[in-house]
Amino acid sequence: MHHHGPGADGRMVAVVAVAVVVAVHLVAAARLRGRGDAWPWTRDLCFTAGGVLLAVAVIGVLPGGPFTVHMLQHLLAGMAAPLLLVLGRPLTLALRALRPGGLPRRVLLTAAHSRPARCLVFPPVAAVLDMGGLWLLYRTPLLAAAHHHPMLHALVHFHIVAAGLLFTFAICQLDPVRHRHGLSLRAATLLLAGAAHAVLAKSLYAAPPPGTAYGAQDLHTAAQLMYYGGDLVELSLAVVLATTWYARGARRSPLPHRACS
Fold first, then answer.
1. Is this structure's pTM higher than 0.90?
2. Looking at the domain assignment, is residue 260 inside a domain?
3. Membrane-spanning regions, if any (predicted)?
4. Binning pLDDT at 50, 70 and 90, where does residue 176 land?
5. What is the mean pLDDT of the chain?
6. 124 vs 61, 140, 170, 192, 240, CA distance in Å?
7. What is the spatial distance between Cα 39 and Cα 13, in angstroms, rounded to a whole number?
8. What Å distances lie between residue 207 and 26, 69, 187, 222, 246, CA to CA?
9. Which of 131, 105, 112 is nearest to 201 (CA)?
10. N or C: which end of the chain has fewer CB within 10 A?
11. What pLDDT does 175 receive?
12. 256 lies in some domain
């Protein structure tokens, strides 16, 4: 698939765009620290690593057959990179770096608190957009069509990245959102989405996407990569869920009373 996608110019534009976003993040973080505000370096490291994985996925110089390379791109751009980018807490950084009362900050807040945004970050909706898009891609002729239409190929990969970011953002809820959803809903959504991803991987092991002609070994390697790689990222998401739940519970708990002597 990677041989039929956008040309070198298109890939270079995408890599430059990723580099600019990472640079803006790092400059904003440096601005916060310069005025004396605390901002953990770990968030910068996570965001930068996410940008690097996105760039690697875009360039597509990866080992394996065509479908294995495509699946590596899917895992990097649609699952691993979004997790690292969300751990960088970009919305929190933007809100803290922008001038209070300024137009950019007001616009960002209005967009983040809008009704469409609330609907999109509702965990089940985000999961359907993410996993539903993957089922549509791999169990219909869409992937085969993308082989021959560079613009469709680019749109498919854009959706993989955007839907992965949305799903990760909705599950983790690390950045400030007006309507927070409970741990039970987010955990159940993650579990069901993980099951849907695993079933899709198993189906690909048995049958290729309609209209494609990948070799059996390439198909099996890609399906196994999707299955076990997806499990690894989903386990990481579960760890983030558990860690943030514990941290918030600890902050809400009152300090124990000292016993009377």
1. no
2. no
3. 12-32, 44-63, 75-98, 119-138, 150-171, 183-205, 225-247
4. confident
5. 89
6. 34, 22, 9, 9, 18
7. 30
8. 44, 18, 30, 12, 42
9. 131
10. C
11. 84
12. no
DSSP, res 173: -
HSE (side-chain half, CA atoms, 13 Å) at 132? 7
In a domain, 261, yes or no: no
Number of structural domains in the chain: 1
Per DSSP, the three-state class of 1 is coil
Place of tokens 């099951």: 195
- Tell me the per-residue pLDDT of 116-152, one tens digit each, with 9 for 90 and over: 988 999 999 999 999 999 999 999 999 999 988 888 9
What's the full length of the chain, in residues?
Answer: 261
The answer to whether residues 157 and 163 touch, using CB atoms and an 8 Å cutoff, is no
Domain that holds residue 155: 2-248
Q: What percent of the chain has pLDDT over 70?
A: 92
Give, in degrees to the nearest 5, the angle at Cα 153 between 157 and 78.
15
The structure tokens listed for 159 are: 């959706």
In a domain, 254, yes or no: no
Distances (CA, A) of 226 to 75, 123, 135, 222: 7, 22, 13, 6
**Which value, in Å, is the radius of gyration of the alpha carbons in the chain?**
20
